[in-house]
Amino acid sequence: MDAVLQYGLDFAAGYSFALSLLFFLPAILAFLLSHSRRWAILILLFSLGWTGLGWLVALIWALSGRRG
Q: Is the pTM of this model over 0.85?
């Protein structure tokens, strides 16, 4: 029983980490690409990223626009 519980906890931890990376993908890309509005993109993710539409807008914004 302990092995099953440990497997479940490991799976949940990995799943949570993967979802966190996916959620912050627009901000990660903005910082890696040195986007001039990278902090605004991060704020947009924190405020509206959970809606799905806000996340999509942040992703498009991170991949477009001026780099600085």
A: no
